[in-house]
């Protein structure tokens, strides 16, 4: 739902105060693009801040549109934010309960913080410098404790907690992210290995295959998006712009097969920045269906046969 803002560009109405009809217009558009599951992102609507009757209304509107809500995504609400960490932790707890009411099986969150002035002034925000988590064991320990608290709450309502990779945070490299999950030490807390968040940076980045091989064994949810990336070793200039999965920098055919081979059976959410993001996400969904391994498909040389898993797609 990256293409749906918190405030409608035409009407000026906030989705948070939207009517059933206004919510239905958005969700029906997603269903009309061929989706039958949707991740509710709080960049559009904060389900954790809805009154019980409005939360019930949202669930009814989604069902009427033919959509289920397997996941809810919390963005830029770091639980270790120096000024708002405690409030963000409380918000995550409310969102877990609201997500469970909607029937979601996963709450996705991370450690990224609100965009900086530098990022807000850029065409693509990832070309500016954002918040950097401190090299401080006490702050990292606070992240572990608070995510563990959220993980236990999620387990009580039958949900998983997924932590999204994001640059310059304790989830900003594959090694650090895996170590964080291991430090949390709960079976329902895993990673969202959003490779796109890292390879789009206009600076040297970790190899996408290394990110995939390290993080996918810990994955319990997955945002997929891609970018065209170019590096000029002479000038040091790096560019990255959004691209469909099948034509971007990352070979998602290989990565998807790797994911299945290590046992991933979670929800995959298609994302895309810029332009008609919904249509690109729909094309990405169809691409994923084509490249998912099947028992009746011959295995390429050098690959092992893997068991087919069903793809549940979220818009």
- Helix proportion: 25-40%
Instruction: State mean pLDDT (0 to 100 scale).
Output: 93
Pairing-aware structural class of the strands and helices?
alpha/beta
Distance from N terminus to C terminus (CA atoms, Å) equals 6 Å
The CATH homologous superfamily name of the domain at 195-315 equals Divalent-metal-dependent TIM barrel enzymes
Shape: globular
Named CATH topology of the domain at 195-315? TIM Barrel
CATH top-level class of the domain at 195-315: Alpha Beta
> What is the count of helical runs?
10
Task: Produce a short descriptive summary.
37% of the residues lie in helices and 14% in strands.
Describe the protein in words:
The protein is α/β, with parallel strands linked by helices and 315 residues long. It has a domain at 195-315: Divalent-metal-dependent TIM barrel enzymes (TIM Barrel). Helix content is 37%, strand content 14%. The strands form three sheets. Strands 1-2-3-4-5 form a five-stranded parallel beta sheet. The chain has a three-stranded parallel beta sheet with strand order 6-9-10. A two-stranded antiparallel ribbon has the order 7-8. The longest helix has 20 residues, at 137-156. 43% of the residues are buried. The model is unreliable at 299-315 (pLDDT under 50).
